[in-house]
Amino acid sequence: MRKAGALPTEERVEKNPDRNAYFGEEHIHTSWSLDAWAFGNRITGSDDALKYAQGQNIKHTLRYDIHIETPMDFMGVSDHSRYVRVTKQANAPGTYVSNLPEAQPLIMKNPNDPAEQQRVFLCLLSLTAKPPIKSLMSPQVAVPVWTDKPENPEKMLKPVILDMENQFMQVKTQVAFARADLHLLQRRSRTTSTSTPTGCAKPSSLSIRETTHLLGPLSSGR
User: Fold this and answer.
1) Which pLDDT band holds residue 157 (cuts at 50, 70, 90)?
2) Rounded to an integer, what distance in angstroms lies between the CA atom of residue 138 and that of residue 132?
3) So where are the chain's domains?
4) ∠ at Cα 167 (77, 182), nearest 5°?
5) 54 vs 159, 162, 178, CA distance in Å?
6) Of 89, 86, 91, 44, which is closest to residue 63 (Cα–Cα)?
7) pLDDT band at 58, cuts 50/70/90?
8) Angle (CA) 130 135 140, round 5°
9) Which of 137, 31, 49, 135 has its CA nearest to residue 92?
10) Considering just the CA atoms, what is the radius of gyration of the chain in Å?
11) Rounded CA separation 186/34 (Å)
């Protein structure tokens, strides 16, 4: 006995692939964020974020390898755009930023001291609550952000492009299946119409079970 309202197996509709569950992180900071660097995230960048999301090894702040067992379906890197990497530059002796008067409160005598980290963090909070400080957003500050540790865009985009190509091939395959199914349905419909005995009603469509079977490759999303 089936439950009230339940459809027979042959009448059940395939699950909508757009309602599948996906797992990932929506809010990730790398060392590029001024507060993340202050609290000890000193070596990660956007390339490390991508590797981590894919389940590859990256270096922990303490220099040992870490990774996740199950790769993520998505990740959002949300580094702060204002004063990006300023904290790191301020704490690198000899840099342009380290000599700016406005950056002196960001310099830590001991970057691993929790008290120093808290002091700098509170300073950063006060900075973000004020109008932008032009000297910390000048070309002399912004250019080293991209030249100090250049990312490799071609290397980062390669797996993304490969994944997009794979998805495109899947879509093309699904379209081919759909067109083949449509031709088969039309041919069967014509055959059924021409073979109907005189005086019998012509079937208007195929059964739900037969249609579901024919459209299986398309509706499965694979």
Assistant:
1) low
2) 11
3) 19-151, 156-219
4) 145
5) 10, 14, 32
6) 44
7) very high
8) 140
9) 31
10) 29
11) 63
